[in-house]
């Protein structure tokens, strides 16, 4: 004989949708329904400004004459907030700088968010506000995006994926394979600050002073460099020394162009705070990440003009020539130490400092 049906009290029903008054991300925020719409309209759009276009699956951009540069990147840095910035402005600056390394001026960015269930909306709002301000300050719009929510433990609070579109002006030909023997190697300023800033917060290490990230957009600096020379082809290579730092950038250039690079270590600008922190931790500051610095390889006939143009802008005020490209030892980077000795510089097998971007 079948069991009688169990009576269910409507008062015991539980709605599968969370309350809208929640102060944290819930799975419903990624479901494409009302909660998703409210998150976009009440948090992201006010933060990103009028350039965002939420009603379309793709943005339609007016493109000036020229070639298109396209880049994509993902940001998983921990902690989300660090001295001088957070994951939001870091994502904007990093994407812009990838375009700038091709000589491109950005015309639009995308922002995709992977959010962990339970993330505080105040935290997400602070990141989005910073992201929107960074884009506005750089003169570029965040034009479209996406939001997904994963269960607790599926992400570390939040990850950001970006894409950037830029236009490369006519005549600009920049790439790591274009470095030539005789070229000068220029760095735009102090190195190692971003990696040490992240490490100090992540590990709770007090270095006796606050080391601030160098995160900054570099497209205006690149434009000034190109405008300083009669022939834009004089700027052969640009590279932002992020993961792996200056050494990784130099090795990539040397191998791409099948040339050697010699660096004068005494001329490389390493702040005392970064040097002390790296000595304490057993790190090489030349392999610590940067997020607002540029390595340029320039025709020696025009390097003085490029250097002056860089120093005239705040992003390049500390620019200096740190080495040269040579025909010897192709694919290798050699450093000349302060003691007059020479050493081969090679990338680390892995990363000294994980999750710096």
TrEMBL record:
Q: Name one Pfam family in it.
A: AIRS
UniProt-listed GO biological process terms: protein maturation
Residues covered by the PurM-like N-terminal domain = 56-168
PurM-like C-terminal domain location is: 180-329
Recorded hits in Gene3D superfamilies, A to Z, give: PurM-like C-terminal domain, PurM-like, N-terminal domain
Q: Which family does it belong to?
A: Belongs to the HypE family.
Official protein name in the record: Hydrogenase expression/formation protein HypE
- Supply the source organism's classification: Bacteria, Bacillati, Actinomycetota, Actinomycetes, Mycobacteriales
């Amino acid at each position: 004989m079948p069991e009688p049906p169990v009576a269910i009290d409507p008062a015991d029903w539980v709605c599968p949708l969370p309350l809208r008054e929640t102060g944290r991300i819930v799975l419903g925020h990624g479901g494409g329904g009302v909660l998703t719409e409210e998150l976009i309209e009440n948090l992201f759009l006010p933060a990103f400004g009028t350039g965002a276009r939420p009603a379309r699956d793709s943005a339609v951009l007016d493109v000036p004459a020229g070639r298109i540069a396209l880049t994509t990147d993902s940001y998983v840095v921990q902690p989300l907030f660090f001295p001088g910035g957070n994951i939001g402005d870091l994502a904007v600056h990093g994407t812009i700088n990838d375009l700038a390394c091709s000589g491109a001026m950005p015309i639009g960015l995308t922002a995709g968010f992977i959010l962990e269930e339970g993330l505080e909306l105040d935290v997400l709002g602070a990141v989005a506000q910073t992201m929107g301000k960074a884009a506005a300050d750089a003169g570029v719009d965040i034009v479209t995006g996406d939001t997904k929510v994963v269960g607790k433990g599926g992400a570390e609070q939040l990850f950001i994926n970006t894409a950037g579109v830029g236009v490369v002006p006519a005549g600009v030909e920049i790439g790591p394979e274009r470095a030539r023997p005789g070229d000068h190697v220029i760095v735009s300023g102090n190195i190692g600050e971003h990696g040490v800033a992240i490490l100090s917060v992540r590990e709770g290490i007090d270095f006796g002073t606050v080391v601030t990230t160098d995160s900054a957009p570099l497209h205006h600096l690149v434009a000034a460099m190109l405008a300083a020379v009669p022939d834009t082809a004089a700027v052969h290579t640009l590279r932002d020394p992020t993961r792996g730092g200056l050494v990784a950038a130099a090795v990539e250039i040397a191998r791409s162009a099948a040339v050697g690079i010699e660096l004068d270590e005494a001329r490389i600008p390493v702040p005392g705070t970064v040097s002390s922190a790296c000595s304490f931790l057993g790190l090489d500051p030349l392999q610590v990440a940067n997020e607002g610095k540029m390595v340029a390889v320039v025709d020696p006939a025009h390097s003085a003009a490029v250097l002056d143009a860089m120093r005239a802008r705040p992003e390049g005020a500390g620019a200096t020539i740190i080495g040269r490209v040579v025909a010897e030892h192709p694919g290798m980077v050699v450093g000349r130490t302060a003691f007059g000795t020479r050493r081969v510089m090679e990338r680390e097998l892995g990363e000294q400092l994980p999750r710096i971007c």
